[in-house]
Recover the amino acids of this structure.
């Protein structure tokens, strides 16, 4: 008996022990943060996939969303535009206003070799690349960003770097970047990334050298298309990526053909000893130390056909390119396809394609594709701005949205979470609301509305009669009802309509 009791209590004890040792291990795997891969093909014009019949790019739209084009920000050049994509800020706000920048406060110049210093990227506290926002988000300990070659990658920005990164290397092929980024995505959950960011230098270089419409461009684009094919294959062969990874493929700007005689030498028009000039061939910031020379230089430049010149305070609002010390006293911009040779530029190096022009010009617009679990499928969507990409990525990554110059409302139409509201959807919504309020409440509201209508009608009749018997009020009434007044607003076309017309 004693033995049996002992055995019985032993069994109970072991059950108890197994209970306390097992039950507290409530599987505490933290929820995996969302996965996003952002890829930029430098200088990928919005209409290349159609002009060159790019099979895999065309597949992307069936798989997700193709936005007709992106409305990018002025100036439409590489470093500024890429920083705009990852921060959601206009160039005047983030301060990367050109590929070659002069800062009078720092008394320093940034060129391709020196721009990797943090001072250029941390001009103000607003600049926070998405790779930093992702890592600062506190909802999970599993958020890490991996960045390859994106402008700004190899310097801390306002004190923060991505967890993993590789600097720009012109010899690195895109398939090597894919390999690296997916290795990072597939590491153990203690070290793996949930946000990957990749920059690729083509088709920009081919565009400059041979122009946007050329056999060489055809070849380069077929290469890009093959890379996209490889990307899709990698994702489809991995269940984890296939079900979880969202991908955005976009670009910084487009490309315009440069004809041989569509160029000028700046020193043929102004005395360049009176000023400092910084920029690229499409646009220059001119700093004039003696303010009395601004008007003289402006006057000389303003007579040149096919080029635009603005004093700083007159730069068009749509450029959002004014309120920063790094923007010159004078901005000189070629019309689409017209280039400028600076004094130290070797004019024997010809470009057959260029960018940097008015951001409203069609040929300056970049591509945008998105696919993965959050995106709608087989959708050709209406354009949005490059500053809106940051709020989109914040939403995908479930990050609390920061104040930027972008707007989530302008991008949500491409997301599954926001289905298109058809007319019948709206009716159903209305009916369900009525049900929520209860028929009695609705009945009361209708009665109150009816009473007010009747009351208003009676009141109007009474007041009309009194106006009728006092004829000196009549002209006032006629003036108020006159057809020409108040309707002028309808004649003012909206900005966005004008924008589409520019070539
Ligand atoms: C927690 O659950 C996940 C799947 O939901 C599983 O892969 C993992 O091994 C579990 N962890 C522990 C400690 O049981
Ligand atoms: C691009 O090249 C392919 C052959 O490589 C050719 O079939 C196609 O017509 C070319 N497209 C254009 C737009 O030149
Ligand atoms: C585009 O490419 C696809 C497949 O590569 C081919 O079937 C199709 O005929 C091409 N279309 C044009 C207009 O060249
Ligand atoms: C700016 O720096 C240059 C040398 O890089 C120097 O010659 C010049 O005096 C400096 N200007 C001011 C205002 O500090
Ligand atoms: C910037 O790049 C240059 C040349 O690539 C390098 O020598 C320098 O150390 C870099 N500076 C920083 C701050 O990373
Ligand atoms: C995340 O947590 C750290 C430390 O607890 C804190 O300093 C930081 O402000 C938090 N960041 C956000 C975005 O809440
Ligand atoms: C450029 O050359 C073409 C002919 O080659 C000519 O028609 C055009 O007027 C020239 N443009 C300028 C700005 O000189
Ligand atoms: C304006 O152009 C004239 C004639 O080409 C030149 O002599 C003068 O120096 C220029 N003025 C300035 C401020 O560059
Ligand atoms: C300009 O470039 C050409 C070749 O493109 C080269 O032969 C020449 O030496 C360069 N001139 C200067 C001043 O750098
Ligand atoms: C852009 O965003 C910054 C930071 O929120 C803000 O200070 C600035 O006023 C914005 N610019 C415009 C034109 O709204």
């Amino acid at each position: 008996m004693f033995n049996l009791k002992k055995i019985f209590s032993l069994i109970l004890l072991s059950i108890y022990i197994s209970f306390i040792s097992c039950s507290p291990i409530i599987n505490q795997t933290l929820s995996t943060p969302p996965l996003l891969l952002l890829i930029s093909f430098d200088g990928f014009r919005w209409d290349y996939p159609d002009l060159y019949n790019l099979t895999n790019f065309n597949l992307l739209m069936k798989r997700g969303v193709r936005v007709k084009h992106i409305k990018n920000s002025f100036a439409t050049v590489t470093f500024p535009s890429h920083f705009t994509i990852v921060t959601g800020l206009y160039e005047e706000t983030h301060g990367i206003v050109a590929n070659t920048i002069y800062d009078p406060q720092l008394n320093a110049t940034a060129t391709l070799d020196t721009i990797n210093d943090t001072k250029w990227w941390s001009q103000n506290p607003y600049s926070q690349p998405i790779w930093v926002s992702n890592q600062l988000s506190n909802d999970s300990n599993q958020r890490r960003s991996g960045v390859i070659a994106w402008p700004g990658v190899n310097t801390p920005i306002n004190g923060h770097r991505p967890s993993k990164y590789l600097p720009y290397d012109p010899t690195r092929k895109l398939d090597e970047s894919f390999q690296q980024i997916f290795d990072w995505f597939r590491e153990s959950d203690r070290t793996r990334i949930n946000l990957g960011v990749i920059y690729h230098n083509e088709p920009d270089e081919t565009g400059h050298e041979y122009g946007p419409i050329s056999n060489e461009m055809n070849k380069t684009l077929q290469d890009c298309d093959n890379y996209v094919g490889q990307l899709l294959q990698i994702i489809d062969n991995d269940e984890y990526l296939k079900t979880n990874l969202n991908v955005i493929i976009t670009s910084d700007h487009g490309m315009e053909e440069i004809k041989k005689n569509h160029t000028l030498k700046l020193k043929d028009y102004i005395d360049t000893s009176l000023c400092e000039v910084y920029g690229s061939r499409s646009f220059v910031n001119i700093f004039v130390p003696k303010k009395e020379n601004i008007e003289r230089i402006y006057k000389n430049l303003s007579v040149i056909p096919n080029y635009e010149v603005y004093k700083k305070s007159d730069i068009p609002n749509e450029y959002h390119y004014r309120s920063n010390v790094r923007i010159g006293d004078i901005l000189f911009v070629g019309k689409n396809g017209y280039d400028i040779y600076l004094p130290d530029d070797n004019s024997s190096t010809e470009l057959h394609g260029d960018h940097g022009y008015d951001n409203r010009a069609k040929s300056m617009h970049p591509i945008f594709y998105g696919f993965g679990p959050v995106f709608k499928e087989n959708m050709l969507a209406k354009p949005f701005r490059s500053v809106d990409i940051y709020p989109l990525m914040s939403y995908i990554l479930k990050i609390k949205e920061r104040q930027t110059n972008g707007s989530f409302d302008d991008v949500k139409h491409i997301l599954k979470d926001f289905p298109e509201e058809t007319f019948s959807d709206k009716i159903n919504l209305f009916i369900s609301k009525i049900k929520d309020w209860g028929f009695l409440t609705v009945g009361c509201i209708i009665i109150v509305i009816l009473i007010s209508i009747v009351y208003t009608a009676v009141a109007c009749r009474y007041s009309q009669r009194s106006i009728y018997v006092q004829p000196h009020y009549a002209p006032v009434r006629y003036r108020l009802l006159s057809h020409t007044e108040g309707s002028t607003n309808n004649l003012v076309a909206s900005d966005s309509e004008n924008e589409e017309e520019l070539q």
Remarks:
- Residues 35-255+354-414 form a domain with the Alkaline Phosphatase, subunit A fold (CATH 3.40.720.10).
- The pocket of 2-acetamido-2-deoxy-beta-D-glucopyranose (ligand 2) is lined by residues 52, 218 (CB under 6 Å).
